[in-house]
Design a protein that fits this description.
The complex is a heterodimer.
Chain A: E1 3-10, H1 14-23, E2 30-33, H2 54-65, E3 69-72, E4 76-80, E5 85-89, E6 94-104, E7 108-110, E8 123-125, H3 126-134, E9 143-148, H4 151-162, E10 166-172, H5 176-184, H6 190-199, E11 204-205, E12 208-214, E13 221-226, E14 229-234, E15 237-241, E16 244-246, H7 249-253, E17 258-259, E18 262-263, E19 276-278, H8 287-303, H9 306-311, H10 313-329, E20 345-347, E21 352-353, H11 354-358, H12 363-370, H13 382-390, E22 404-405, H14 406-409
Parallel strand pairs in A: 1-2, 1-6, 2-3, 6-19, 8-15, 9-10, 9-15, 10-11
Antiparallel strand pairs in A: 4-5, 5-6, 7-16, 12-13, 13-14, 17-18, 20-21
Chain B: E1 2-12, H1 16-27, E2 32-36, H2 42-45, E3 49-50, H3 57-73, E4 88-92, H4 95-110, E5 115-119, H5 120-126, E6 136-140, E7 144-145, H6 148-157, E8 163-167, E9 170-174, E10 177-180, E11 185-193, H7 199-202, E12 209-220, E13 228-231, H8 233-236, E14 245-252, E15 257-264, H9 275-288, E16 296-307, E17 314-317, E18 324-328, E19 330-331, H10 334-349, H11 373-376
Parallel strand pairs in B: 1-2, 1-11, 2-8, 4-13, 11-18
Antiparallel strand pairs in B: 3-7, 4-6, 5-6, 9-10, 10-11, 12-15, 12-16, 13-14, 14-15, 16-19, 17-18
Helix pairs in contact in B: 1-6, 1-10, 3-10
Classes of the chains: A alpha/beta, B alpha+beta.
Chain lengths: 417, 377
């Protein structure tokens, strides 16, 4: 039951959609595999309480018009199944898909850093809170604290407010100077300036970061460092956005080189492995505009249409400059890496506290001795925390890349495939 | 640089065999230094299935004695060792395999092991998750499971004043002296080599072959099975011969996770998961437990069993290197036979009489089978 396509794209966020649409006019067979129920990625997440932008709706409609694009929503990549073959799974079945070219558009996930109380119900990532609200979580009347760094805090605050929540504090860890310099430079990206003005509000504080969350069965209060003072804020939810981590696990398993925690790509968005490309946040952060142009370049380059791809380089450069400014302004304060106390859980799946991990010299030694990273998330949270807090190399992913039905994994049996 | 007496005994390898030897030797009043370099090895990779096999009388004797010792230790073991006396069900798919179950039944019963034959009906009643229509089974009540990495840690920590542990790689062994990667020589009255698949690096004349195996563990689920389930094909057909093979072997951990095996490959030294082999192993498992297909697997990995030519371990003094003692070549039974191995090795080392249970088979474990003048006689 192995199927074959000319071009496989992993991820239907801005980069993946743009790559597919750029490649579609060539009439080659294209498959997009995406783990969300609808295309759009994290930024254009749909749901009962979401309103998609016009451009996102338009891209979705264009995807449907191309007969040579098959979109596999709510499907995931489970394992490497041999050269240029991947094992996939959706709610009904598992199957092996063979491809000639691959574009990895796996996006990024939130960096979760352990601090006392971070695993209490009511504490989430900032992006996660946005996703939950768009998905239908009622937050009307709730007091919400949003903490961390970068524009995502403002976006999460906007979504929460629009749905009736009271945002009682936005704690930005970057200094006022850094934020102001970043804001002052925004005239070069006018639409970004409008977003920023829209989102700023009276509860915004710079040089502010979370210290601890507390509560009996769920979150009741947050302690926040505000300059030299410590404030205790009663609240119902805490959303923390410490930044993003590129999802490089699948690319790593495919042999692609990783640099600065992102998939290394050249000017054609080509990875270090022939016929394998990457675009969007997984190859370095820059927001949806950068992801869109990178996706188009990758789609064209995968077809060999280098002349057209080259025409997009100036646009990519424009958004790359924006991304560089952003990443400089909101660089993480090292104090945030020291929030965990000895008894703070780092691995939530296997209940491993910080003190048990810090005794060890590497991820492998820690895993062997404490079982950290052996649960359902397979170290996506705690290995990333270990990398950020202790400088440990994260582990190589083994199949299944994420939990998958045994019946799906049995498809790896060549005798039957 | 030569240091004097580092300990009474230096043990190379802090896996389950080295840990059991350390525990046993210290109980006789010896001071032990355990050297381990934290490389991935069988204790961390394996299933922790305590299972008595009977390919030979010597294997049966060592297995029965060792599992009995584990059961005696069980009340003292901490919870995180996850020791359970859940028993093994050997499953027969057809008449031929049932005949094997009956043969095994008489062999084990004659040895005094608690075991009983089950009809297909009784099996379906006892383990309703199994596919209908199996021919029957042999239940071996004394078998069990444990979490070997924690069991090894526990064994090493029982007498902290006598067991010293050092993270170090040994690069050379000469009788009772070992050279560390740091350039330091250490000396003891005796050196015990218990480094599993890595033993051959330090002792070139060991006839050990690595057999690769795959394992997978699921997410946590309510009880699906109550015994460790193993197909009798494991002995009658699946793992016979030298080609790659798979056999059904599943246990449910105290966490609710189903632990699925097994595969065997001889000429593959790549630790990466072999997708086709994993698929084949899981397909075999689903033939026995159809409901398994709908459960989520969360992790798969591989390990290497260190096997001697006749499948039995090498336990005893190296024939041509006085002062060097071997406890290697346990293949898939290192966890099962660690306790018995340690008793036998300690008796040999201290020139005490060997355990009564093993007395009839002493030559079957000696390294002289393969090494030194006798091996060539």
């Amino acid at each position: 039951m192995t199927q074959h396509v000319d071009l496989l794209i992993i991820g239907a966020g801005p980069a993946g959609m743009a790559a597919a649409l750029a490649a579609a006019p060539s009439a080659i067979s294209i498959a997009i595999i995406d783990d969300n129920p609808l295309p759009g990625g994290q930024i254009w997440r749909d749901g009962p309480q979401a309103r998609l932008s016009a451009s996102a709706r338009q891209m979705r409609a264009r995807l449907q018009r191309h007969g040579n694009i098959q979109l596999h929503s709510a499907s995931k990549v489970v394992a490497f199944a041999g050269t240029k073959r991947l094992l996939l799974e959706n709610a009904e079945e598992g199957w092996v898909l063979a491809y000639d070219k691959l574009i990895v558009c796996t996006g990024a996930r939130e960096l979760l850093l352990p601090f006392p109380g971070w695993s209490l119900p009511g504490v989430t990532g900032a992006g996660a809170l946005q996703a939950l609200i768009k998905g239908g979580l009622p937050v009307a009347g709730e007091r919400i604290v949003i903490a961390g760094s970068g524009p995502l805090l403002l976006a999460a605050a906007a979504t929460a407010k629009k749905n009736g929540a009271e945002v009682v504090r936005i704690a930005e860890q970057a200094s006022l100077g850094d934020v102001a310099r970043f804001g002052a430079g925004l005239w070069r990206w006018p639409n970004k300036m409008i977003q920023a003005l829209d989102l700023a509000s009276g509860v915004y504080r710079t040089s502010a970061h979370v210290l601890a969350a507390s509560g009996v069965d769920r979150l009741e209060a947050v302690r926040v460092q505000l300059g030299d003072r410590v404030h205790e804020i009663a609240c119902d939810r805490l959303a923390c956005g410490f930044g993003l981590v590129p999802n490089v696990e699948i690319a790593t398993a495919l042999g692609c080189r990783i640099e600065h925690r992102a998939i290394f790509v050249d000017q054609w968005q080509a990875s270090s492995v022939a016929d394998h490309y990457a675009a969007g946040e997984c190859s370095g952060f820059g927001g949806s505009e950068l992801a869109l142009v990178e996706g188009r370049i990758a789609g064209l380059a995968a077809l060999g249409q280098r002349a057209q791809a080259r025409k997009l380089w100036p646009e990519r450069k424009h958004w790359q400059n924006f991304a560089d400014r952003l990443n400089r302004a909101f660089a993480l304060n090292p104090a945030l890496k020291k929030l965990a106390k000895p008894d703070t859980l780092v691995c939530r799946c296997e209940d491993v506290p910080y003190a048990e991990l810090a005794n060890h010299s590497s991820w492998t030694a820690a895993k062997l001795n404490t079982r950290c990273g052996m649960g359902a998330c397979q170290g996506r949270i705690c290995a990333t925390a270990g990398q950020t807090l202790l400088g440990w190399e994260p582990p190589q992913l083994r199949p299944p890349f994420s939990p998958a039905r045994i019946a799906t994994l049995a498809c790896l049996d060549e005798d039957v495939a | 640089m030569i240091q004097g007496h580092a300990a009474d005994v230096i043990i190379i390898g802090g896996g389950i065999i080295g840990a059991a030897c350390a525990n046993e030797l210290t109980s006789h009043g010896l001071d032990v230094l355990v050297l381990d370099c934290q490389r991935p090895a069988a204790t961390a990779a394996g299933m922790g299935h305590l299972v008595v096999l009977d390919h030979s009388p010597a294997e049966l004797a060592l297995g029965e004695y060792s599992v009995r010792l584990w059961r005696e230790l069980a009340p003292q073991m901490p919870d995180n060792c996850a020791m359970r006396n859940n028993g093994t069900l050997w499953l027969a798919c057809n008449e031929e395999e049932m005949a094997e179950a009956e043969r095994k039944h008489s062999a084990l019963s004659a040895f005094g092991l608690g075991c009983e034959l089950m009809t297909g009906e009784a099996l379906a009643h006892g383990e309703p998750s199994l596919r209908p229509g199996l021919f029957g089974a042999l239940k071996v009540s004394g078998d069990g499971i444990l979490y070997a990495p924690n069991a090894a840690r526990w064994l090493l920590q029982r007498q902290p004043e006598r067991v010293h542990q050092q993270q170090a790689q040994v690069v050379e062994v000469q009788g009772n002296r070992v050279l560390l990667a740091s350039g330091q020589w250490l000396k003891a009255t005796a050196v015990v080599l218990a480094s599993g698949i890595y033993a051959g690096e330090l002792c070139a004349d060991l006839p050990l072959q690595a057999k690769k195996g795959h394992l997978l563990i699921t997410d946590r689920y309510p009880a699906q099975i109550s015994h460790t389930l193993v197909e009798l094909g494991y002995v009658t057909s699946a793992h016979k011969g030298n080609g790659p093979s798979v056999a059904f072997n599943v246990q449910q951990r105290p966490t609710g996770q189903l632990f699925v095996g097994s595969s065997r490959q001889f000429d593959n030294h790549d630790p990466a998961v072999d997708a086709a082999m994993l698929g084949r192993m899981l397909r075999r498992a689903m033939e026995f437990l159809p409901g398994l297909g709908g459960l989520n697997g969360i992790r798969s990995w591989t390990g290497f069993r260190s096997a001697s030519p006749d499948g039995q371990p090498l336990i005893g003094e190296h024939p041509t290197q006085p002062g060097l003692w071997l406890a290697v070549g346990h293949e898939g039974l290192g966890v099962t036979t660690a306790t018995g191995t340690a008793k036998l090795l300690a008796a040999q080392l201290l020139r005490n009489p060997p355990p009564t249970a093993l007395q009839a088979h002493l030559n079957a474990y000696l390294p002289q089978r393969f090494i030194g003048a006798c091996a060539h006689a």
